Structure to design on (194 residues):
């Protein structure tokens, strides 16, 4: 347990450095707050449930990596992300791919923690816990796209286009969901027996 706590402390410090950096040097403070609503909710969930359930080091690492990718995206907005522009130029792409990377990572990086949650916390049998995270990722991706639409079109219209970051792609929501689904399928195969 002590080893687990040391790793968790290192992951937490690393994440906090990235998160603070993303806020201090953001180019759009209003968008940063909108983008980080789910970050606050996720951290609240992890902190409140910690006395009752602790993830493995592998799960905490994967969760930390995903949260870092997400908050780094909120620093610039996903569509204007500096790393995404570098990739766009390097690979001669039509659009900044950072948004696509994070959506893929949602499925790829969070599959294993979800599987662990269902097996170790909820005591689901392996046969269900193996595929249920894929279903959760797909459902959460769909729900997130609806939440994005509500935020962009109803609650914060002035930040809508910046927040959505569709970059002119009318199929952006569907592609984002497909990438999250693909990421979870690949992770499901990689972590089949782990």
């Amino acid at each position: 347990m002590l080893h687990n706590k040391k790793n968790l402390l290192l992951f937490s410090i690393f994440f906090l450095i990235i998160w603070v950096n993303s806020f201090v040097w953001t180019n759009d403070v209003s968008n940063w707050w909108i983008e980080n609503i789910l970050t606050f909710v996720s951290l609240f969930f992890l902190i409140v449930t910690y006395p009752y359930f602790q993830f493995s080091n592998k799960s905490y690492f994967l969760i930390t990596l995903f949260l870092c990718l997400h908050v780094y995206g909120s620093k610039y907005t996903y569509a204007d992300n500096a790393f995404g522009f570098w990739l766009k130029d390097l690979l001669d792409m039509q659009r900044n791919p950072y948004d696509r990377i994070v959506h893929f990572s949602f499925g790829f990086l969070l599959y294993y923690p979800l599987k662990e949650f269902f097996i170790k916390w909820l005591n689901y049998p392996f046969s269900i816990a193996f595929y249920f995270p894929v279903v959760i990722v797909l459902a959460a991706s769909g729900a997130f796209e609806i939440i994005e639409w509500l935020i962009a079109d109803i609650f914060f219209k002035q930040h809508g286009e910046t927040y959505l970051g569709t970059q002119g792609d009318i199929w952006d929501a569907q592609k984002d969901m497909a990438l999250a689904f693909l990421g979870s399928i690949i992770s499901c195969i990689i972590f089949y027996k782990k």
Summary: The mean pLDDT is 86. The first helix runs from residue 2 to 24. Residues 70 and 143 are 17 Å apart (CA to CA).
